[in-house]
Design goal:
- About 55% of the residues lie in helices and about 5% in strands.
- It is mainly alpha-helical.
- Among the domains are: about 1-85, no CATH class; about 265-355, no CATH class.
- The protein has a three-stranded antiparallel sheet, with no helix packed on it. A two-stranded antiparallel ribbon has the order 1-2.
- Strand 3 and strand 4 (about 405) form a beta hairpin.
- The longest helix has 22 residues, at about 300-325.
Length: about 450
């Protein structure tokens, strides 16, 4: 198994849980977490079930997503108890109770706000729900002076299905949306709507579209790829995904139509000899990343895929050496590529190979992309926030859409939701939520 770090978080969390499990099996409840659990008085409904669940998480008898989440679960139990025992002692709940609400269904919204208060360690989602309830009451009274509504009313949209986007915008404004859609602000939705309108009405004014439109594509399915690139431009605040997709489309045109394998990625792939089990599938995956036939997370990830293949080959050859089996007699020499370190098999066995960053004939087409990437690279770090709590770095991605947007602390709340698993960024149904090791 390949790990990008020496010791994964999941490994450490599981080992810690096994130690706690052994202690409890021996009758030892001196673990600080167990002491805190035993010494706290709970009286709310079903507190026994929550306590049992807390102990299961401490012992690791839970799902992978729940490992290491005991503290957040225990804190949720404390807040449930406070919610039942003395609401007036909690400023957040007191502020909720002081709201003068009259719109239909405000009682249900109030209960949902209380749920957000107990479910999350930070009050970000609670505050967002309360603000949305205030907006809903304001709209119920016929007041559209809120900045979000003023900005919406001043805009003109004519692109296809703009009415659906306006409806989603209004639902977000008044809080009639899913828990995870609170991470998508009205400003972000309005930005997407303006991008769609600009694409529809004045495409030539968008610099990034010039990069896409200046290329003539003829491979099968290029129209769908072009639409996907435009979707990346609309959906992401940073243009990196869009630019990666355009680059992949250029690679695809050269490979599938021109039969040109002179790109450094393919040269590096073709120059290596792989013999480990499953290398054919890995090679196919590497080429898919090169031409963009992959998820949004995998676009531009050819180098990581090739590095993984080299590691697997090195491990395979090391295993053969230990077992005394004959390995390939072709000598290994160092291959240095820009941004890559690899091993190359050369029949002469005496000269390292070096390739330029990209074929000379496509350099002019790639320069605008590189220039645009440099202009936004400084903003990457500040965008890496969980769309749920807006605090921690996202570690979990929704598959197959690929949006990496949820931190480990917010993931457990997904399991208690009814219905399909929906990505909070694009609202597409997801098959699985997976942890990403960067």
């Amino acid at each position: 198994m390949d790990f990008s770090v020496n010791e994964s978080d999941l490994y450490r969390e599981k080992i810690s849980a096994m130690r706690t499990k052994q202690q409890l099996y021996d009758g030892d409840r001196s673990d600080p977490n167990i002491v805190a659990l035993d010494s706290t008085e709970f009286t709310y409904t079903d507190w026994e079930l929550d306590k049992a669940e807390a102990e299961r998480r401490l012992q690791g008898d839970c799902t992978t997503l729940q490992l290491g989440t005991y503290n957040s679960f225990y804190y949720k139990m404390i807040k449930k108890q406070a919610l039942m025992k003395d609401r007036s002692s909690v400023p957040l709940l007191q502020a909720l109770d002081d709201l003068a609400l009259t719109y239909p269904g405000f009682q249900a919204d109030k209960k949902l706000a209380e749920q957000y208060y107990t479910e999350f360690q930070t009050p970000v989602r609670f505050h967002q729900k309360v603000e949305a309830m205030k907006c809903k009451e304001q709209l119920h009274r016929g007041d559209r002076s809120h900045p979000d509504l003023v900005a919406l009313d001043q805009a003109t949209f004519t692109y296809p299905q703009w009415q659906e986007d306006v409806e989603e915008y209004m639902q977000r404004h008044v809080g009639d949306c899913s828990l995870f859609q609170f991470g998508i602000t009205c400003d972000f939705l309005r930005s997407k709507m303006h991008k769609k309108q600009q694409l529809h009405a004045n495409r030539s004014s968008i610099d990034f579209m010039e990069i896409l439109d200046q290329h003539e594509f003829s491979y099968g399915g290029w129209q769908a790829d072009k639409q996907q690139a435009e979707l990346y431009y609309v959906d992401f605040s940073s243009p990196d995904r869009f630019l990666d997709k355009v680059q992949a489309m250029q690679n695809k045109q050269r490979l599938l139509v021109d039969g040109d394998r002179s790109h450094p990625d393919l040269v590096a792939l073709d120059s290596l000899v792989f013999t480990y089990k499953g290398w054919q599938a890995d090679r196919e995956e590497a080429e898919k990343r090169h031409i963009g036939d992959c998820t949004v997370l995998q676009i531009g990830g050819f180098e990581s895929c090739l590095t993984k293949m080299k590691k697997r080959q090195a491990h395979h050859e090391y295993t053969l050496q230990l077992s005394g089996s004959p390995a390939c007699n072709t000598p290994l020499i160092d291959l240095v590529l820009p941004g890559r370190l690899g091993r190359h098999r050369n029949g002469n066995g005496n000269q390292p190979l070096c390739f330029s960053k990209s074929p000379a004939k496509v350099v002019p087409a790639l320069n605008p992309i590189d220039h645009k990437k440099e202009s936004v690279s400084s903003n990457k770090e500040e965008e890496k926030k969980c769309v749920v709590c807006l605090e921690d770095e996202p570690r979990y991605a929704f598959i197959p859409c690929g949006h990496l947007c949820v931190c480990s602390g917010c993931v457990p709340n997904l399991e208690s939701r009814e219905g399909p698993l929906l990505c909070p960024m694009c609202r597409e149904t997801s098959l699985v939520l997976t942890r990403i090791f960067a």
